[in-house]
Amino acid sequence: MNYTQKLHTTDKKQETAVLVALATSKQSIEKTKEYLDELAFLAETSGVKTLHRFTQKLDKPDSRTFVGKGKLEEITAFVKDKAVDMVIFDDDLSPSQVRNLETELQCKILDRSLLILNIFSIRAQTSQAKTQVELAQYQYLLPRLTRMWSHLSKQKGGIGMRGPGEKELETDRRIVRDKISLLRDKLDKIEKQGFTQRKSRDKMVRVALVGYTNVGKSTLMRLVSKTDVFAENKLFATVDSTVRKVVFNQIPFLLTDTVGFIRKLPTTLVESFKSTLDEIREADLLLHVVDASHSSYEEQIDIVNTTLAEIAAADKPTILVFNKIDLLAASSGTNGHLEEDEQDTYNVEHQEGHMSLEGLKDSVMNHHATDTVFISAEKGLNMDALRELLLEKVSQIHYTIFPNYLKDQVFSGENGQ
Ligand SMILES: Nc1nc2c(ncn2[C@@H]2O[C@H](COP(=O)(O)OP(=O)(O)OP(=O)(O)O)[C@@H](O)[C@H]2O)c(=O)[nH]1
Ligand SMILES: [Mg+2]
Asked: Where Mg(2+) is bound, by residue (predicted)?
């Protein structure tokens, strides 16, 4: 697909963007700024450089052009002056808004969903994940197939290019619908295989790592399962789920690393990733990993819980794992210290005004009734506490599901290793 063409750092010239978001009656200016940080990080993960951010206070988005007239002129001038490749909006735009904005700005117009879809398409490794992303992209595209929004236009490169005429559009829509049903069939087949695979693992307790993107799930997975799992300071480093067998004190369990969540995760993505998310839905225990150093960790917990509810995986036994405690303000003996140049600006920005580990613990005690543990997966801090809690929970579940486990082990002559 043309509009999903990968924006890579390998491109000769790095693509540039300006970001736009509104502070509305429902969204404070502080929140808006924070969302823009995240949007810039998403752009960076896509290989796009952010040159400037525009915010505007409006009660609600302008129905024609999202921002008001004056702000649009300001953005247009900047885009012309700096020959900016694209303007990225933090909220979804209607097809007519896209049309009007394209006419005015004369460059590519993207929204957060499209950016996330693009990153997923870069990251997907397995044929299942690739198919899921492609399905999500076509579903995103279908209602937006207007004159200005077609992927089937000539090979101009980049994402969100100008489209063809009305007649070709009808053909395009038909092609997209056919493609969607084809991809659904393909996914059905892959899912059937996956189901058989999962069934054959029935004899073990299943634990899934869940959490907001970039909180350290893969880092923790690597530490616990002692295997190489890809982790990176980028959003959505993991799109495919990985399963590893872990044995603690003779109790085996399966640990799954899963795709991270984010605010405004495109619904088409959640839908087409349903089967990957089955790993979460079918888990016996969730390790909900939280970036304790992020100023909005509470909101991120809420977003994860909401997404879990959407995929029918709420109300499972859960351990809240507060990670990255090495980045908290030093006041406790367990704190590690991170060299300043080891962190990128994103982390630094979010470190300002941070509470200490004690402050965090107090606040968590007051808000969360679930089991909690405070660790640093990167520095290996407090891992014993996590292991202990995990072992306790896993054994509980293990002996509930497999009451005859020990007996079976003895009679089959295995030692449970
Ligand atoms: N300082 C610090 N950094 C950490 C810690 N754990 C993970 N990180 C860093 O956080 C970044 C994200 O880690 P990942 O393990 O890729 O996070 P993830 O949750 O798997 O992210 P996605 O797959 O993108 O959802 C990486 O740069 C890690 O090195 C920690 O305890 N302390
Ligand atoms: Mg990951």
From this structure: 218, 238
